[in-house]
């Protein structure tokens, strides 16, 4: 095979791989946008294909079943949230809460719709478990240093309370049920956590 032919073949392979990646990205983005407005069980692969400007067969070829598409989405959004929350200061409760609330403002309603299906749709269980584990790691990393002065049992209790104070349900109750503003929500969450960090 001539060198030019080898280069052309390599270029075509790279181009195909890039096109495949672009298609997969478009499908995951489309799926995410649908999740922003609908419940998981209301979304079909045809809906995803239409939103991604592709075909149902392409979605199936790239991801298989909807559960696999959800898994790909979970990995992507999990990485995004981890990156966002990694910027949280460990010595500034208000700063950490600001990062948390920004996350919930972007993803909270979608997460609440997934939680509403817990126990009914097995597909979503891994997504919820991954989210809970990630949130616990963030709470331990961000607020754990402020609990070092407490004994083991007291530290565990306060950590459990901080997990509740920072949970998406707390954000939802403040923002959606009580109609608090973003600023008020941050203030109230900050005050709850600050009290739990005090001796």
From TrEMBL:
Keywords: DNA-binding. Residues 44-63 bind DNA. Residues 21-81 form the HTH tetR-type domain. Gene3D superfamilies: Tetracycline Repressor, domain 2 (1.10.357.10). It holds the Pfam family TetR_N. One of its GO terms (molecular function) is DNA binding. This is TetR/AcrR family transcriptional regulator.
